[in-house]
Amino acid sequence: MRQDQDAIAHIRSERPTADAAALAAQCGLGDWVDTLATNQGWRWRKSQDARLYFFTGGLVVTMPEGYLSAYDWETVRVLQYRRTINGVNAEACSVLIDPAGSALNIGFGRAPVFKTDKTALGITSWVNGPGFLYPHMWGDHIQTCVTRAQLGKTLARIQRGERITFGPYTVDQHGVSDKKYSAAWTEIIEIGFTLGSFMFNGHQRRSTVPGSAHAYAIPNLDLFVKLCHQLSPNVKG
What we know:
Helix content is 25%, strand content 34%. It contains five helices and 15 strands. The strands form four sheets. Strands 1-2-3-4 form a four-stranded antiparallel β-sheet, covered by helices on one side. Strands 5-6-7-8 form a four-stranded mixed β-sheet, with helices on one face. It has a four-stranded antiparallel β-sheet with strand order 9-10-11-12, with helices on one face. Strand 10 and strand 11 (175-177) form a beta hairpin.
């Protein structure tokens, strides 16, 4: 890790390229705040010029062969995938999905999203990008930025009577459901994670709370968890 930090320390202050800055301005992403890169050793020379440019309002990704894309914290959907082997981090990546359904997988590894999942998520195209360094750091940062930008508006939509879908789950002001089960928010007493899956527990002996789902299949996972906490009066913590 120290070698990685030393290798791209100078890149953290690298300002966006003219094209990236213009796209960020066009999308209203605000001020630039940070730049991250891939491994800079000769083995990764094909992706050395790839960059993550972080702005106050979103992210611009540049990759070889002129690839350039922008993501607004207020509209992007993000899938987060992490896998460990014997307690050691093995894969960590995020999938950025723009409003048109174009998906970009960045980080180390590939999210196991299959054709049926892509259809359900409205993904119309998929690009596998390079392994940007510090995937846990920027992955958590992206989730936090999305939650900060979308939580208030999403709660307002739910309170107006809208139903919001997060992959396998649908939430409204009354409760949460999946394809088979549904439960009122007042029935839910626990939410959490086990072995990479998200789960609900209910207080009834024969609870009808929705089943567990892979965490990586839930777009904007941190936002979804925060919503569940705010809407479930009996969930502690």
